[in-house]
Amino acid sequence: MEQMTIAFDEAELARKLNGLAPRSRVAFAAACAERLLPAYEAFTELAGRGDARALGDMLARIWKNLLGQKMGPNELQADIDRCMELIPGEDEEPWFDGQPYADDAASAVAYTLRALQRGDSQESAWAARRAYEALDHHVTHRLGIDDEVQAAGHPAVQAELLRQRRDLHELDAAGEDPADAILRLRDRAREEASDVFRGS
Q1: Which of 27, 39, 18, 25 lies closest to 189 in space, CA to CA?
Q2: Is residue 100 part of a domain?
Q3: Which of 4, 78, 93, 99 is 20 to 30 A distant from 162 in Cα terms?
Q4: What is the count of structural domains for the chain?
Q5: Buried b / exposed e along 4-20 (16+ C-beta atoms within 10 A)
Q6: pLDDT tens for residues 141-167?
Q7: Residue 157 is part of a domain; what is its CATH number?
Q8: Domain that holds residue 45
Q9: Helices in the chain by DSSP H: which ranges?
Q10: Is residue 2 part of a domain?
C-alpha cells in the first residue's frame, strides 16, 4: 500500500500547538531548530561569518529554561537581538551555497526564543516552517527536483514532517507536566540533527 504524503499545513499546526502546554510549544520549536543547527555550523565554517557557538548556546539556554533554569526577561531579549544579528542576509556577500540553510537555522532559533518570550503558538509554527523549507530547498536546489509535488513527497521532506508529527503527538500526550517528554525531544533532536540532510 502506498504511503500517504504528509502536507505542511501551518494553520493546522498552529491550531494543534495552541492546545499544548506553553512549555511544550517552545520545546516543539526548539526540536525543529536543533535539527537545523549543523547547517548553520557548516555555513560558518565555510563562510567565516556568523557565530555557531553563540547560536548553539542560545538553544542550550532555551532547553535549560524549559527544564527549570529560567532566563530573565532581559537575558531573553538580549538573546533575541543577538540571534537576529546572526541570521545571514539574502544579499550578504560573498554568497555561499549553505546560506539559505543557515538562514533557516538561525531564524528557527529566533522564532523559538520569541515563542518562549510570548507564548505564541504561531512562533513555534514558524520555526517548524523553517525546518520544512530547509528540506524543501535541499530537495529542489541540491537534488534538482523541480516538480513541486515530487519535492513535497520526497523522503527527506516527509521525514521532517513525520518528526514534527511525532514530536507534537508526544508533547500532547505529556499533558501539563512535559518535563520527561522535553528531555526526550532534546536528546533525540540532537541525535537526529546529523542525519537531516544526509542520504537524501
Answers
A1: 27
A2: yes
A3: 99
A4: 1
A5: eebebeeeebbebbeeb
A6: 767 677 777 777 888 899 999 999 999
A7: 1.20.1590.10
A8: 10-193
A9: 10-18, 22-47, 52-66, 73-86, 99-118, 121-137, 148-152, 155-174, 179-192
A10: no
